[in-house]
Amino acid sequence: MMNRKLGTVLRIIISLGLLTFLIYSNRNNFSSIMDAMKDLNVYYLIIAFIFYFTAISFIVFRWGILLKAHGFFISNRFLWQSALIGFFYNNLLPTSAGGDFYRVYDIKQNKGVPINEGISSVVMERVIGTLSSIVLLIIAYFIGLFDYLTRNAALGVVLSGIVIILFFIALFFPRLFKLNLLLSKFRIFSKLRPKLKEFHKILISYRHKVKYLFISFLFTMIIQAFFFISYNFISLALGLELEFYVFLFIIPFVSLVSSVPITIGGIGIRENALVFAITSFGIVQSQATLFSLIILAIILAIGMIGGIIYLVKNILYKSKGII
Predict the structure, then answer these.
(1) Portion of the chain with pLDDT greater than 70, in percent
(2) Is 33 left (phi over 0), alpha (psi -120 to 50) or beta?
(3) Which of 24, 15, 25, 22 is nearest to 268 (CA)?
(4) What is the pTM of this model?
(5) Burial grade of 59 (CB within 10 A; 0-12, 13-18, 19 or more)
């Protein structure tokens, strides 16, 4: 328990530290940012919010398909409210009980889905989301978007992608990589071994459910498309000269970086990654920073909607909650 609390405190500190760094690095750009805010196209921002919210809402279809693979048929309406409340937990509550934990708890308490199957569904969601980002980055590489990066940055992204791919392959086929032998040789991996074993079981549970995985992947690409449109409208609202296709790099790159579990809901690390990615395509830092802050505002607004749904669900409908 103490370790969890300490971990939460550290994540809060890192998030605040990264946001402070972002603000400090723009100390000479405040006037430019304020001027850009005055010229924002509000209508484009509203459209951007709608598509971002739609992307988050579409998660229920992917999640529902993965639950169906285990024989659980739950209404999209229930999964939608659960996913939004989970989004609220991830982004607005500095607790050790994250959004994924809430979703697993919710479907167990209210729909009778066993813990193992619930965990399996949300973890596989993460896996598919990660793989979709890798696919988009591969496409970005072959259409030349990596040419905009510095040599070291491009190399870092490529090597990270390769490591992630090898990691999943090793977990799918541990005997091929002699993973058990490798982990048993080093004491440092003793605590990690059980977690990797559980992760392997989750992956294996979907090995013969290719149809469900394929449909989930298709939904994931639809979700990515909605994010693309949302980001593009934010670009239009700011009057940036960014081609639509550059988001083939920006969105998956930011998604992978912000998924590193060292901050609260990716706050701080996501904004800095966005600034890095956008400035790589010739946009000035002040505009890139404002872009990242708009994304943060949208995420927090959707998180607040999830919070309102939580209150309605637990006060009016008296469903079991864990706050």
Answers:
(1) 83
(2) alpha
(3) 15
(4) 0.86
(5) buried
Tell me the C-alpha distance between 94 and 136, whole Å: 31
Query: Angle formed by the axes of helices 76-92 and 59-68, to 10°?
Result: 120
**Cα(76)–Cα(87) distance, rounded to whole angstroms?**
16
Q: What is the pLDDT of residue 186?
A: 56
* pLDDT band (50, 70, 90) for residue 231: very high
**pLDDT tens, residue by residue, 12-55:** 888 889 888 888 888 887 888 888 888 889 999 999 999 999 99
Q: What is the 3-state secondary structure (H, E, C) of the chain?
A: CHHHHHHHHHHHHHHHHHHHHHHHHCCCCHHHHHHHHHCCCHHHHHHHHHHHHHHHHCHHHHHHHHHHCCCCCCCHHHHHHHHHHHHHHHHHCCCCCCHHHHHHHHHHHHHCCCHHHHHHHHHHHHHHHHHHHHHHHHHHHHCCHHHHCCHHHHHHHHHHHHHHHHHHHHHHCHHHHCHHHHHHHCHHHCCHHHHHHHHHHHHHHCCCCHHHHHHHHHHHHHHHHHHHHHHHHHHHHHCCCCCHHHHHHHHHHHHHHHCCCCCCCCCCHHHHHHHHHHHCCCCCHHHHHHHHHHHHHHHHHHHHHHHHHHHHHHHHCCCCCCC
Q: Tell me if 77 sits within 8 A of 253, measured CB to CB.
A: no
Model confidence over 195-210: pLDDT tens digits? 666 666 776 777 778 8
User: Tokens at residue 270, please?
Assistant: 């996501």
To the nearest whole percent, how much of the chain has pLDDT over 90? 37
Q: Taking Cα atoms as reference points, which of 50, 64, 130, 132 lies closest to residue 103?
A: 64
CA distances from 154 to 28, 137, 145, 243, 256 (A): 28, 11, 10, 20, 15
